Amino acid sequence: MSLTLLQSTILFGGIHGIILAFILLADRRLTHKTAVSYLSAFVGVFSLLMLRNIAEMTEFSVKFSFLFTLSSALVPLLGPSLYLFVVRMVKQTSARNHLEYYHFLPAAGYLLFLVIAGLGFDIVDRTQLKNYPTLMIFVSVLQAVILLLLFAYIICSTHLLYQAKQTAKNYYAGNEQVSLKFLFILLSVIAIITLIWLIFFSADIELFKQARSQQALELFWLSISLSIFILGYYCLLHPQLFNLVIPKTSESYLHKDEQQLIAQQQALVALMEQEKPYLDPQLNLQQLAEKLAMKPKELTYIINHRLNRTFYELINQYRIEQIKRRLQQPQSAREKLEIIAYESGIKSSSTFNRLFKQYVNMSPKEYRAQFS
């Protein structure tokens, strides 16, 4: 069996991806092991699919045609493993929920169907489906349903992340939401890959299969191989991605006495102006609530319903005001903007520039130039 350089690269990528899946499982730095297990499953399944498509280009698929056909049941595993990974990342729970296993029933059902079809119709090769037009249509419908399920899982995962992002704004004031951005990017890449698979390769649906360029197919799987590398190694190099806590949505405190709410609001404003806790880049809702001797849910209600802001907006507005005061001073002309931002509680220069322009409608340099 001879392989081209491109095919050998994809083969190496598939094997490496499987090894990477086990490395992710074994890495103790990655907390929330249940989420990691689903991520490992996703990486492993994608890697097996790469090996499967290399087999399709060689004599292996002919020698082991029935086994090769059964491997089609790997595709329905992608959606559930991705979705459950996102669920575990957002909810941050480690206990297994037996209901999660129901997500894998379509893959089990499809595998059972392939076995029955293979034994009942004596089909050991996908090309033999052409001899059974009705069965080919039925298989194509099943494949289309599997594709729709994958898109549904991507949409549900995106919606879940959006809700988590909105909730996180009431807990974090820095760039801790990088975990969510990473997940949004991951879902976007998977959606693009799936669309390319559908548009250019008919998503391997039997009824719509068309002649396709071998080189184009190899380049497609090579891009997937690179995506798996980036995904896996990014997680290994940034274990903090698995440490983000997404708090539950706070309950209403409308039943509280108005005078008590006013007193809590005044205490918050006084603390922010006198002690300036926002200068701490790591400040979160829990820490601020402890300084005020309040429950996090109470503080969230005060910020949301009395000040009409999220925690993220409140803290960063104070930080921007602090930066503006610094920039108005003549000696600031000799200071680096990044240092001023960091000392005001903003660690990231890109976040600093974005927030400053959002609140002041001009860049930090333009604002400082007015006072020089």
Automatic annotation (TrEMBL):
Keywords: DNA-binding, Membrane, Transcription, Transcription regulation, Transmembrane, Transmembrane helix
InterPro entries in UniProt: Homeodomain-like_sf, HTH_AraC, HTH_AraC-typ_CS
Matching Pfam families: HTH_18 (PF12833)
Keyword Zinc: no
Residue ranges crossing the lipid bilayer per the database entry: 6-26, 38-55, 67-90, 102-123, 135-162, 182-200, 220-237
Signal peptide: none
Domain HTH araC/xylS-type: 266-370
PROSITE patterns per UniProt: HTH_ARAC_FAMILY_1, HTH_ARAC_FAMILY_2
PANTHER family, alphabetized: ARAC-FAMILY TRANSCRIPTIONAL REGULATOR
Official protein name in the record: HTH araC/xylS-type domain-containing protein
Species the sequence originates in: Thalassotalea insulae
Organism lineage: Bacteria, Pseudomonadati, Pseudomonadota, Gammaproteobacteria, Alteromonadales
